[in-house]
Amino acid sequence: MRRRMESLAGVVTALAGVVVLAVAALQGATAAPNSAGVSMLDFSFSPASVTVKKGESVTWVNNGQAPHTATANDGSFDTGLLTAGQSGTVTFNNAGSFDYVCVVHPEMVGTVAVSGGDEPLPETGDPISQGIPMAILVAAGIGLLGGGILTARMRS
User: Fold this and answer.
1) CB 88 within 8 A of CB 64
2) What is residue 31's predicted lDDT score, i.e. its pLDDT?
């Protein structure tokens, strides 16, 4: 019975290692989004304001029936006229704040804020957004996984 419990403890430790490695993979996958989306519907942009890093893109999708544009007030970008179901994507290579309007419906306004790319992502209280160093997560995952397998094999 004791060997069986020790073997089970090894399996649980190995599974914990797998979970830690999954968190490491998730951190790598979610640390830097590369785009934002804006819906054009009911004569408004939703969300009206988006934030991306320099080099990232914003895609506007016309989810309504009326045609719309997303046209920068300073002329730096224009999606062109998008009819129902169409989309337009703009990549932002310069930091700054870019106000835009739908030229067909001037009451539709929005803003794209582009950071320089060096600013950290806002913290949300979870370990992934706080940026646990990848090396620590990977080392912990491998240690738990290897130790668990070793323990399970020695006790079985």
Assistant:
1) no
2) 39
- Mean pLDDT on 113-136: 57
Sheet holding 87-91, edge to edge: 44-46, 35-41, 57-62, 87-91
Distance (Å, rounded) from C-alpha 30 to C-alpha 64? 30
Residue 60 and residue 72 in one domain: yes
> Hey, what are 129's tokens?
């957004």
Q: How many domains does the chain have?
A: 2
Q: Tell me, what DSSP letter sits at residue 68?
A: B
Rounded to whole angstroms, the Cα distance separating 129 from 112 reads 22
- 120 belongs to a structural domain: no
Question: Residue 109 has which token pair?
Answer: 């306004």
Report the pLDDT value the prediction gives residue 25, as an integer from 0 to 100: 53
* In a domain? residue 13: yes
Q: Are 58 and 35 in contact (CB under 8 A)?
A: yes
Residue bearing the bigger pLDDT, 38 or 156:
38
Residue among 58, 45, 61, 46 nearest 92 (CA): 58
